[in-house]
Fold NAD(P)/FAD-dependent oxidoreductase.
Amino acid sequence: MERFDIAIIGSGPAGVSAALTASLRGKPPLLFGSRTLSDKITKAQRIQNYPGLPDVTGPQLRDALLHHLDVMGVPITEARVNAVYAMGDYFAIQTAAGTYEAAAVILATGVVQGKPLPGEQELLGRGVSYCATCDAPLYRGKRVAVVGTSPAAEPEAAYLAEVAASVVYFPLYSGAPRLPGTVQVRRETPTAVLGENTVQALRTGGGDYPVDGVFLLRDAMAPTQLVPGLAGDGGHVAVDARMATNLPGCFACGDAAGLPYQYIKAAGQGNVAALSAVQYLAARRQ
């Protein structure tokens, strides 16, 4: 498997800045994100404090950042990252499409609104999963619940239906899910994951559903959920002035690293994180 020097998770201003700087320093990065770059930017009406771009609209800034990536030849890998594991001398980045490896990781994920369900973090890896494609074989012949925040979760729920004994799907979005007839669809809001040492049920506003596993398929995850062992600080990632986290080789920048939530601040921190990652890689080779 190819091992990249630097993987960057997130394609907002922080991630784009980090990707451009890494590329300029001779470390072409693996950039996870979307060609739309950032919903937050797309919805911005006016941005008046980005140097050199007075009174720019969000879509205009997005297009300028995307053009810069294209000019520098930095591709975007459009795969949802489900987990990042520190493996000692590298990081394993798990997606529904497969697993990638990188010597250093930069988290530019932004801020995820909402809190984990009660019981979610305690039972993670013991019945709670964020990737159906990755963990479905563990639930062959068992009962599972799937919580999807967008239609993007439907293919994973359909795959689970081929493996598990039963699948109950809880869509947290409007529209009729397109799923096999064997999948039960329930328009109820999950409130907690229940269990002692392993998952035993999913609680919703309509009652408790006895299951062996709960798959929480969100469009985005908080970095502290994404990376086991990552230290947080009041809902953000704890970083130092170099944007380094408590995990060697892991850096964070932008909104994920704390206030203020400003595009120019995010871009500056992305630059710092990339330079720090390059220095980290150089020190390892000495």
Q: What stands out?
A: The two ends are 24 Å apart (CA to CA).
